Amino acid sequence: MSSTHDRIDAKKVIDSLNTILEFELAGVVRYTHYALMVFGHARIPIIKWMRDQASEGMAHASAAGEHVTSLGGHPSLKIGKLVESHKHDINQILTEALEHEHATLDEYYNLLKLVEGKSVWLEEYAREQVQLEEAHIAEVEKMLRKPGDLNPAG
User: pTM score > 0.70 for this model?
Assistant: First the structure.
């Protein structure tokens, strides 16, 4: 009887998980930086949300790294691409965050494609992360709307 690991392309899955690890670590840095750059009347709730996102990103990075080592791989020490626009109004920050969330979501979908129907464990992990990333994107898109605007972005 073959194991789950025999049915997946472990190298491709590990590569995808390492890319996810790098994206999530970049998110930690990004959201931590953003929280430091928020000023104005709504600063306190916004920085709390951003710090929560950074903490969640760290948990996601750790989970991806645990999957890498479970598959016999070595977790990446790299951090994903960090873009600094030097524009720190909330809309610009949220737009940059949205771009990052979409890139991360794309890699979770890539992982899902690699493991779908081959490993329930990894497939469920990927699906859960896709769900969480899609929820983050929906929240950021709502934050970018003007008050009273019911029309979704797109």
Answer: yes
